[in-house]
Design goal:
Helix content is about 50%, strand content about 10%. By secondary structure, it is α+β, with helices and mostly antiparallel strands. It has a 4-stranded mixed β-sheet with strand order 2-1-3-4, sandwiched between helices. Helix 6 runs antiparallel to helix 7 and helix 6 packs across helix 9. The longest helix is centred in the middle third of the chain and has 17 residues. The termini are close together.
Length: about 200
């Protein structure tokens, strides 16, 4: 029986966008179940001494990444609009994702957020954008009212702790058993390993 693939993503991550838009389809072809695991890279970057995305810290790397995204999105027929500012504040979106069941609703919400951000260039910290994403996922827009719930805040802290314990240092990350695969370009390998377990 295939193993579960745990998809760790940050809504501010460009390459997580690429993976989010194909992971369910590609995993289903191999009979692999996907668990969507939202988390925040900010605290992990801080532990590495970074105050922002490495694509901002290292301009040459940032220029390459945006050109790479243009090529990859074009090859996959995905829209790409560079959000401003970059990276986006993904705190609210991550909290909301954790309140949704890890099945259809969470995946649909995540895809809607990524599409709004990287497809349309919208601000994912804006409540209206998040309400739209909740509606697209079939969830009640009133869930926004729960964002200040201490239990939801604590759940996201715990999620970041789990990510660090797994050795995640960037996004997207894919965990199969105890193996970590990093980056959209390793998704196929992660799916294959999950299919063989």
């Amino acid at each position: 029986m295939p193993d579960t693939l745990h998809f760790w993503f940050d809504f501010a991550s460009t390459y997580s966008y690429l993976s989010a838009m194909r992971i369910e389809r590609d995993a289903a072809r191999r009979g692999v179940r996907v668990e969507w695991q939202p988390f925040l890279l900010g605290p992990i970057f801080t532990d590495q001494g970074w105050t922002t995305s490495p694509f901002n810290i290292y301009p040459a790397k940032g220029r390459y990444m945006w050109r790479d995204m243009e090529r990859l999105c074009a090859s996959r027929n995905l829209p790409l609009t560079r959000p401003d500012p970059f990276p986006q504040n993904s705190l609210k979106a991550a909290r909301l994702a954790l309140t949704l069941p890890d099945s259809g609703p969470r995946a649909a919400f995540a895809r809607a957020v990524f599409s709004a951000e990287f497809g349309d260039g919208r601000d994912i910290s804006d409540d209206m954008v998040l309400q739209d994403a909740l509606s697209q996922a079939g969830a009640a827009p009133e869930m926004l009212d729960r964002l200040s719930d201490p239990a939801i805040k604590a759940a996201l802290f715990e999620q970041v702790d789990r990510a660090e314990a797994l050795g995640l240092f960037g996004a997207p990350g894919f965990v199969v058993g105890s193996d970590l695969f990093w980056g959209d370009d390793r998704l196929d390998m992660a799916i294959e390993q999950a299919a063989q377990d």
